[in-house]
Write a structure and sequence with these properties.
Layout (H helix, E strand, L loop, with lengths): L13 H16 L6 H13 L2 E4 L11 E4 L3
Parallel strand pairs: 1-2
Helix pairs in contact: 1-2
């Protein structure tokens, strides 16, 4: 497996905050709750069109989020 060499910081801007609000509403409408930090991370990934690489299964039911699960 190839290691990730660099990370880019994504600012929490107004457009990211709007995606965050949409994701929070969508998960709540499905009777799910997710932490604010998880939704902020998801919103940044969705807004920028990036794939989120994570072992955290809490991200799986978040709409429009592209995931790449990692087994630890």
């Amino acid at each position: 497996m190839r290691a990730i060499e660099t990370f880019e910081v994504v600012d929490y801007t107004i457009p990211v905050a709007l995606v965050h609000a949409r994701l929070a509403a969508a998960t709540a409408a499905r009777g799910l709750t997710r932490s604010r930090p998880d939704l902020m991370i998801a919103a940044a990934a969705v807004h920028t069109g990036r794939v989120l690489i994570t072992a955290d299964r809490d991200f799986e039911p978040i709409a429009d989020l592209k995931l790449r699960p990692v087994l630890l």
